């Protein structure tokens, strides 16, 4: 299964997952660009879906459906099906609550479309108030192999790395991470994230030292997660 990224608004990122003939749009706010891409590739948009219900992610969905005739897969349908099939290939749907109760992540062919659950270099705000659920969602995503590619719902890379540098001014991997950053195609690997993303590093000795120096709770994994969340 192939993936194409589309930037819209100031920093939103949407996606089309596709085979030879049919496609799935996720957070399809870039309606005109997506329609042009479908025409260029000769693709039929079979489905449209969203990673969660925030307006900046759903804003283009109705117009995209009206323009293409795609079937909308709502949250309940996706949670029941747990997968979307495109030409015999499957995009797995994971319920990853935390940013919002309805947040979902799509996994196919070695990549994650993580919406506002996991960004490149940071994570989403816990608007749901469910900090434990968010922790479990992040743990679920962290279990994917290091070469898994992360496609997020926004481009926050430069902000995220500036924040990571405030936490650890001498962090050895931030510069290398930024050298890989390309605003024309925003992505990273899980291995990259485990090195630099503060919110995934609650078991990293360097991050534990930061928590100790700041007098924050660090005796177990969940305590460290809670403490790192207070750094934001």
Layout of helices and strands:
Blueprint (H helix, E strand, L loop, with lengths): L1 E7 L3 E7 L3 E5 L4 H11 L2 E6 L5 H4 L2 H8 L2 E2 L2 H7 L1 E4 L2 E7 L8 E5 L2 E3 L17 H12 L6 E3 L5 H11 L6 H7 L7 E2 H7 L8 H9 L7 H10 L2
Helix pairs in contact: 1-3
What is shown here, in short?
By secondary structure, the chain is an alpha/beta fold.
What attributes does this structure have?
232 residues, alpha/beta, Metallo-beta-lactamase, Chain A, 6-stranded mixed beta sheet, 5-stranded mixed beta sheet, 22% strand, EC 3.1.2.6, hydroxyacylglutathione hydrolase
Order of helices and strands: EEEHEHHEHEEEEHEHHEHHH
Indicate the structural class.
alpha/beta
- Quaternary organisation of the protein chains: single chain
Amount of beta strand: 15-25%
Largest sheet: 6 strands, mixed
CATH topology of the domain at 2-152, by name, is: Metallo-beta-lactamase, Chain A
Report Rg: 18 Å
The CATH homologous superfamily of the domain at 2-152 is termed Ribonuclease Z/Hydroxyacylglutathione hydrolase-like
Helical residue percent band: 25-40%
Strand order of the biggest β-sheet: 6-7-8-9-10-11
Tell me the overall shape: elongated
Q: What's the tally of helices?
A: 10
Protein name: hydroxyacylglutathione hydrolase
GO molecular function: hydroxyacylglutathione hydrolase activity; metal ion binding
Organism: uncultured Desulfobacteraceae bacterium
Enzyme class: hydrolase
